[in-house]
Specification:
single chain, about 270 residues, alpha/beta, Rossmann fold, 8-stranded mixed beta sheet, 9 helices, disordered N terminus
Length: about 270
């Protein structure tokens, strides 16, 4: 995410998770957002860390009136994909336009958000340090517009059927999410609580909604991919898990391929009203 530690997100992973993300996001926050936005004039939406543009494809059709989306990401390939697969027309058929800006979110400046009527991001907060999130909250507050932040992990994972190794892997994964980085300790599952406090200190009204993934047989491919990454991160954090990794993964991936694995991954969505 930052200039010091670039993270390359796989386009395939983003495409795989997009339907589950769309199902999970708190739609009532989009409805509350619509009521909070100006009734007239084009809406200028800044999408921070946009990836392949999934947030715009979900949100733009839920909002009325003409919209101009400014897509921020440091990955030029993902920006190109986001522009090529631009959002559908807004509710009521109004036009939606897009522009791409190659941006390092850690170095975002207030001028980058000039003229915004909405700032949004998805699956971003848990990748930040406390200092970075404080700074981002200040920039958003300075823009004086609503902010919609979706799909931040909260450290709750439920897997059925249960396995004796689940809790140990979950604890190691959460520790990995909070790991020290060159730019500071990452917030991981603490990001939502931190963000609520940061925005409230700046005078914002913060509304929080759960937005969990509920992965069943229809999401078998996503569940398997998520599980593999989850275990890999846990083993990077706790080397002692490596000896149990292979049989554990084999059991779980067989269950996923047979449609017998149910996974709940906790997230939260935040709407901040100035």
């Amino acid at each position: 995410m930052s200039g010091a530690e670039p993270v390359r997100v796989s386009p395939g992973w983003l495409a795989l998770r997009e339907p589950a993300d769309a199902e999970a996001r708190a739609r009532d926050l989009a409805e509350a957002l619509e009521r909070a936005l100006p009734a007239r004039g084009p809406r200028v939406v800044h999408d921070l860390g946009c990836g392949a543009g999934a947030m715009g494809r979900w949100l733009a059709p839920l909002l009325r009136g003409p919209q101009h989306w400014v897509l921020h990401d440091r990955d030029e390939d993902l920006l190109a994909r986001a522009v090529a697969d631009a959002p559908l027309p807004a509710a009521g058929g109004a036009a939606v336009s897009v522009e791409a800006r190659r941006t390092d979110i850690a170095r975002l400046q207030s001028d980058d958000l000039a003229g915004a009527t909405l700032i949004t991001a998805s699956a971003l907060l848990d990748l930040l340090t406390g200092e970075e999130l404080d700074r981002l909250a200040g920039l958003c507050a300075g823009a004086g517009c609503p902010v919609l932040l979706t799909l931040s992990v909260v450290g709750r994972v439920e897997i059925a059927p249960a396995d004796p190794l689940d809790r140990r892997v979950a604890a190691a994964f959460d520790a990995h999410q909070r790991r020290p980085a060159k730019r500071g300790r990452l917030l991981g599952p603490d990001a939502v609580e931190f963000a609520v406090e940061a925005f409230r200190r700046l005078g914002g009204e913060v509304i929080v909604r759960p937005s969990p993934w509920r992965l069943g047989p229809a999401h078998a491919a996503l569940a398997a991919e998520w599980f593999s990454g989850w275990v890999q991160a846990a083993c990077e954090q706790e080397a002692e898990l490596a000896g149990e990794r292979e049989p554990y993964c084999r059991r779980r991936l067989e269950q996923a391929s047979a449609g017998k694995l149910a996974v709940g991954v906790g997230h939260a969505d935040l709407l901040i009203l100035p």
